[in-house]
Amino acid sequence: MIRPRTAPGTLELLPTEQIAFQRMLDVIRSGYERFGFLPIETPAYELTDVLLTKTGGETERQVYFVQSTGSLEKSAAQEEPGLPELALRFDLTVPLARYVAEHEHQLTFPFRRYQMQRVYRGERPQKGRYREFYQCDIDIIGKDGLSPRHDAECPAVIHTIFTDLDIGPFTIQLNNRKLMRGFFEDLGITDGEHQVSVLREVDKLDKRGADAVRETLVGEALGLTEQAADAVLALVAVRSTSHADALGHLDRVLAESTGSEVLATGVAELREVLTVLRDLGVPESDYALNLSIARGLDYYTGTVYETTLDDHPEIGSVCSGGRYDDLAGQYTKSKLPGVGLSIGLTRLFWQLREVGLVGTAESTVQVLVPQLDEAYLPQCLALATDLRQGGINTEVVLDGGKLGKQLRYADRAGIRFVAIVGEQEVAADTVTIKDLRRQDQFTVARDEVVPAVRVELAQPLDVPHED
RNA sequence: GUGGGUGUAGCUCAGCAGGUAGAGCGCCGCGUUGUGGUCGCGGAUGUCGCGGGUUCAAGUCCCGUCACUCACCCCA
ipTM for the complex? Predict the structure, then answer.
């Protein structure tokens, strides 16, 4: 026998967990739609040459390729097989770029889309990190230009969603790559790659601590002077405590600049983003300036975001993204700037479960009709039909058995209500409704069952469902 | 790609200096032929990852191998 098991790096859930996961997807989807974003889906795999436009680097090492048996045999027979024709997407941004370039003339700009699909990365699995996982993205793509106001709208959507998810207080942290780049220029660090390396190191501040980061900064690879390293560390220590405080920090950074235009632009952009964010009604306690946010990805050019849960900083960023100048440069001559954010839902779900913020959900089955006596099965089936026509998700026990067992089945399956039709009920033309969670039951007239169950379902239960 | 760790029941793990395998949880049954989750009693379950070696004897020691896992790189 072959031991049944999932491939490493995949997350598979039991039904009641899956329902909890689906509920989160529903919240995210409705949040995206409420802000006027349109849905798209793209294929799980893309043509390799389309997907891997930038050769080399980390991403290619992590790409899963797709091959039919036919093409596998064909390539095995070749001297130098080369890469397979198809590859699984490793994020949703590259497919979006392709999509926008391909359908450019049928889309209206700014193009606001959301996309919630699985992506694949062939990296070494790690705690809470998966090789197949959901990304829930929103992006706004402009043509030729896109005002920084859009950079404020994206986090406003995220604010709504994380509020609705009800997983405790959170903070959307903002920074701007131009501000950072300009700051580096002032320090004489002008090479783009060098800046990125420094940013990447600075991004580890929370993880490694200021001393370790400082050591690396002045080390051989990055080669900063002591003064430069101190200046960088002082800058990235900036965290705002309120809207006014954030603007104050920005004024100071600008005043201390030795004249970088890029820095001035970055400061101006951040100021506008913060202001629009406030005007959109996002409470100032829920966003902050954090000048250590860098984001590893090199394609970000302006605003960058990370979102953290206030009560669980150890989880790290649960939603991140930023602004990029040119989404689809590899696919089209059109200039398509964009801004977007992504929720890595698989990882988030796993982490929330670890810290006990999400558990299993109640079953999608709202009422179970047990079968006490085969003689009354027709009455049970008729009851189920009535409940279903009343819009109530109903399951009937078709196999029978002891009532105790059927109740245990309901309990384990996370079904809260049981509608019993036995000898007594048939004789009196009634139904007994049992609430397994409240450990309570009552009897109603047969023709009042549907409204009675509706009333029960409408009452929220403050006792959470045990795992 | 680099560096650690671990493989024993469905799950989490214990198993002493080598002497033919254990706990908790879960599962099944009964107590309760119309009442689950609680409680009580009873029960089932193992090629001790795989291959070789040492030994009278290996879950335990040695070698190899495979798998899994944690961290780094990178990132959701």
Answer: 0.83
pLDDT greater than 90 at residue A365: yes
φ, ψ dihedrals at A114, nearest 5°: -120, 155
Region A367-458: CATH code: 3.40.50.800
Spacing of A191 CA from B74 C1' in Å: 22
pLDDT tens profile A435-445: 998 889 999 99
Measuring from the CA of residue A416 to each C1', which nucleotide is nearest?
B36
Q: List, in order, residues 6 or more apart from A183 with CB less than 8 Å away.
A: A232, A235, A253, A257, A260, A263
Whole-angstrom distance, CA of residue A263 vs CA of residue A177 = 9
Q: Which two tokens stand for residue A405?
A: 């067992």
The gap from C-alpha A68 to its chain's centroid, in whole angstroms, comes to 31
The nt closest to A196 (CA vs C1′) is B74
Q: What tens digit of pLDDT does each residue of A153-165 get?
A: 999 999 999 999 9
Distance, CA of A206 to C1' of B13, in Å:
34
Q: Are A213 and A205 in contact (CB under 8 A)?
A: yes
DSSP string spanning A138-167? EEEE-SS---THHHHHHHHHHHHHHHHHT-
Report domain extents, chain A. 15-41+90-354, 45-88, 367-458
CA distances to A173, A203, A328 from A325, in Å: 21, 21, 9
Please, are residues A175 and A151 in contact by the beta-carbon 8 Å criterion?
A: no
Nucleotides in chain B with any atom closer than 7 Å to protein CB: 1-2, 27, 29, 32-37, 67-76
Listing DSSP states for A228-258 in one string gives HHHHHHHHHT-B-SSHHHHHHHHHHHHHH-S
Mean pLDDT on A261-275: 95
Which residues in A108-140 are b (16+ Cβ under 10 Å) and which e?
ebbbbbbbbbbbbbeeeeeebebbbbbbbbbbb
* Spatial contact of A345 and A28, defined as CB atoms under 8 Å apart: yes
CATH of domain A15-41+90-354: 3.30.930.10
Can you state the angle between helices A15-34 and A345-354, rounded to 10 degrees? 130
